[in-house]
Amino acid sequence: MSGTTTAGPRRPVGVPRQRPRPRRAEGRAAGGVSRWTVLVVLCVSLLLVAVDATVLHVAVPAVSEDLRPGAIQLLWIVDVYPLVCASLLILFGTLGDRVGRRRVLLLGYGLFGLASALAALATVPEVLIAARALLGVGGAMIMPATLSILRQVFPDRRERAVAIGVWSAVAAVGAALGPLVGGLLLQHFWWGSVFLINIPLMLVTLPVGRLLLPESTGDRNGPWDVLGALMAAFGLFGLVYGVKRVGSAEPLSLSTVVPAALGAALLVLFVRRQRRRRHPLVDLAMVARPAFGTSVGCIVLALLALVGLELIAAQYLQLVLGLTPLETGLRLLPLTLAAMAAGLSGSRVLQRFGPRAMVCGGFVLTAMAVLSLTVMGHDDRPVALTLGFLLLGFGLETTLFGAYESMLSEAPAESAGGAAAIGETSYQLGAGIGIALLGSVMNAAYAPAVEAVPGVPSAAGRAASHSLGEAYDVADRLGGPAGAALRAAARDAFVHGLHTALAVSAGLLLLGALAALRLPRGLECAAPEVAPGAVPAGRGPGPDEAPAG
């Protein structure tokens, strides 16, 4: 995307004027469907995934009480979804470019619904972990397909910015509905009911998507690199798994180092393989562009700093302040409402200030909001927390909006699936590593203060050091002065760990602000293009016309 297109090319002297191309119905996609109608269907698809990404946060204490998972099992229950999803995004994103993005999307709908039913009926931790892994597979099929179809049906950058704003606002709605609906269901039903909300959404979106969504493919030259896709999937899985294990009791054990090393080696081999191939799975030249690569890095840093923090905040509100799951969801609602507002206003902010100022300013605002949340302590301060969550939501969504828009606009239309897969991989990779990183920081500050409480047996202290919920259980079993001392020490250690995690998060966000300085200063708009194999989203500009918007 170079240069700002304001008019069509001039007709040279002596060259006859070309006959105008036949006009298509403006704003129409496949079968005469408005591209804004297509956007609605895509947003419902996104809602399906976004709700599932956050609905489990308020249900973690209930899952722990019912299934009694170990510390590592509980971490897997929470983290296996983004881990599997991140591992398979490149595979399914590029597969959609080859066999059809709508086809992959509809298959993802079906798998997501089946996995949701399996998760709801799980009676042991292993079954729940497997169901969450299948949900990750379904999410990996849905997420890049929604973004790549959006890239196809909105070829004009200014209209696409509006569409991305709506898309990201719906993601914020899903993040809000997850804790709220989950908390409401937990008030009346068992924890498995939080997964059942996916099934009605799937039953609606599957037939509607089949009827209304346009089918499109990318460049089909050359065979699809199956081996490269598998190398990327296993490489990402090993790398993120190794980082996950860093948060365990043995961060330098073979079970941690070996998967991480193998994953990194596979990713290096994957990059070398793509450079040698005539028709690579991922266009590395696209990734090497400063705007694209910087946008991906900004997405990773934003999620790295904040997703683990959100999970810790949900535990703080329930276990330290004693709020119910529904009350916890309501407390987190301002964060999501602010993110919705930032998404809907993102197009105007982007056009007014440009990608660089938007993403950099969003990082700085989010870092300020994170530091303001250090007021979280033993006492409830609802006004301060509400203001902090409002700033946090607005700053985070401003950052992600600018980064996603720059990334998609920098990618050619024929590689939309691969570009969307890279963007979503960075999102899920940042989320997965963020949970492991901030969880490790939290555990490093929490565990030593709980293991050696005066008057508490050493075995009880070691059991209590796994989590605050386990510390409360151990304290209840001990009873008397020892139980009271352990409960107080665990609360103090958790708050101290929370403040440490907030400081680390703010540092990562400021690092992201520095990285965003490499983004373009202004908004550059080129003429809309249509990818090979795509169903045009509307009439493109004629030889003597300026692009719409």
From TrEMBL:
Biased composition (Low complexity): 7-17
SUPFAM superfamilies linked: MFS general substrate transporter
Occurrences of domain Major facilitator superfamily (MFS) profile (ranges): 38-524
Region (Disordered): 1-28
Major subcellular location class: membrane
Biological processes annotated in GO: response to antibiotic
PANTHER family attached to this UniProt entry: MAJOR FACILITATOR SUPERFAMILY MULTIDRUG TRANSPORTER MFSC, METHYL VIOLOGEN RESISTANCE PROTEIN SMVA
Protein's recorded name: MFS transporter
